[in-house]
Amino acid sequence: MPYQDLARAHPGGIVDLSVGTPVDPVPPVAREALAAAADSPGYPLTYGTPRLREAAAGWLRRRHGVTIDPADVLPTIGSKELVAWLPTLLGVRPGERVVFPELAYPTYDVGARLAGAEPFATDGLLALGPERVPLVWVNSPSNPTGRVLPAEHLRKVVAWARERGAVVASDECYIELGWEEHPVSVLHPDVCEGSHENLLAVHSLSKRSNFAGYRAGFVTGDPRLVRRLLEVRKHAGMMMPAPVQAATAAVLDDDAHADEQRERYARRRAVLRPALERAGWRIEHSAAGLYLWATNGTGCWDQVRALAERGILVAPGEFYGDAGRDHVRVAITATDERVDAAVSRLQ
Ligand SMILES: Cc1ncc(COP(=O)(O)O)c(C=O)c1O
């Protein structure tokens, strides 16, 4: 893309803030567990090891006030594959509508299409009228906006979906990265009122533990739905490699590395945000997660160009839906050195 070349041509080199890929080291606790499990000649279980399921349940209880039975945890190969295949795995049929936020990670749309279903981007469920839909995605904290949905809002979505027999799938891959607001899981008692019926929470280790290269996540929630997913995934060969299962359990048991990583992002965000503001951008939402959702009032491509001229590459908001046409998404996932370079170029 030409703007990438423009940013690359900057004498100080490109500062790539266009993708949310982790750049900091994989924590030693993970590498040690991975190495210790390197001799894994047999097939791993699709269901995962009991240790992994216990670790996932322990993490949700400890960090997010969510109580689940470890039996209801199912490992995934990162969360993107689950997002892309969930409508198919749940048996969503052609012609049915899969609902997701107006501004969203593009894979919800992909997943609807893979199932032959109709993607439907809306923030207002009332727009659906009395129509029954099989699946509604929520994503808090949001990619791309960093918006956090309060428990009250999530509770309404859950009530709406339950009345219609819809499944609510909650993509919670940024849940550990709340800044001004505290994200809450769809499985928290304040949201689900004690029942996980029709609910799935989707988690990822990519951001919390710099694990994007390991491909590790899990899904949990309604035991009936998890069993169904397990059944299909077993026969489809969707299993997490055994050494990755061991490393995933190790990072879920450890909070120190996650706190350290959070601090790195907090610092980058604390310098980038005011630098963008001083340069004429307004930051909206962005109360959590790894992105600043920014606008200077012009079209997104003009903003991408203005920043690329300073050697800073960002993502145009329209990648995430038409409603993003006047915004850009600025990732805080670059090294301190690159973030500082961006800050000085914005002066
Ligand atoms: C909202 C959202 N969901 C899911 C994913 C997938 O992450 P992974 O497959 O690394 O778990 C991402 C990645 O950036 C994301 O932003």
TrEMBL record:
Pfam families the record matches: Aminotran_1_2
Protein name: Aminotransferase
Native source organism of the sequence: Microbispora rosea
Enzyme class per UniProt: transferase
Cofactor(s) needed for function: pyridoxal 5'-phosphate
Coiled-coil boundaries: none
EC number(s) stated in the UniProt entry for this protein: 2.6.1.-
CDD domains, per the entry: AAT_like
NCBIfam families tied to this protein: DapC_actino
Aminotransferase class I/classII large domain boundaries: 14-346
Swiss-Prot/TrEMBL keywords: Aminotransferase, Transferase
GO molecular function, one term: pyridoxal phosphate binding
Family designation: Belongs to the class-I pyridoxal-phosphate-dependent aminotransferase family.
Keyword Oxidoreductase belongs to the record: no
UniProt-listed InterPro entries: Aminotransferase_I/II_large, LL-DAP_aminotransferase, NHTrfase_class1_PyrdxlP-BS, OxyQ, PyrdxlP-dep_Trfase, PyrdxlP-dep_Trfase_major, PyrdxlP-dep_Trfase_small
